[in-house]
Predict the 3D structure of the following.
Amino acid sequence: MLDVSLSVQRLRVDMPIYATDKVSNSTAAPVVETCSPPGDPNLLDSLSYTAPFLIEKLLQDHIAETAEEAEALFAEVKKYIALTQSDRAKIYAMHSLRVDVAWHQFILFTKEYAAFCHTYFGNFIHHCPSTAPRSEEERSIEVASLAQFWERYIELFGTPPSDIWNDAAAIRPTRRVLNRHPGQLVIKDVGDMIDLLSPTGEVLISVNEIARSALAFTSQTGAFYVRELPGELDDDEKAALVAGLIQCNVLRLAS
């Protein structure tokens, strides 16, 4: 049963329902030194903090293409941190590589980042990768699901998360992407479609014939720019294919 079907001009992309259900883009979660009181009004005051130095760096490092995009990324960094500090009974993982990268860049300004944390949250907020060792106490804390993250976001900020959280929406020909399993994925012909199979034989994504060479290239290549996809696909079709592969957790955006 196919749950997702995308058609862009000549390209058709299908994803089985279980492929999208199993996707997890979580990359990190915050760890703090001390607890701050839940409901502290400073939490939402943090959204007014400005950091022109960070906006400049996001542009210089091509993490954002415009000042507006850089401001939007930083706005979501602030919202994410405020959200995690608003409910200490759960761990809220990071669900966007782009927002996570912007957070990384903010942390590099160590003096400013530390002052931001202490001013609005009363403690230093560490960036903790998902693979980092955790204490017994941290392992006992419930990890919020993506649905719980979305619900908490709406409760705090009054609107659903913006498209900034959708990494696939940021796909452009100049974007570099990484393959999570280069050389381990298998191409299989099924009727007029070509399936990409996981190492365990599950169908991750299906495309039509026009995308065969691009899909084969993707399955074997560890890192590449979207524009490098071979074959007859135009830029919009390449972006659509990569977006589908990110959605089913085959590719991820490079930082």
Notes: The first helix runs from residue 17 to 21. DSSP finds ten helices and twelve strands in the chain.
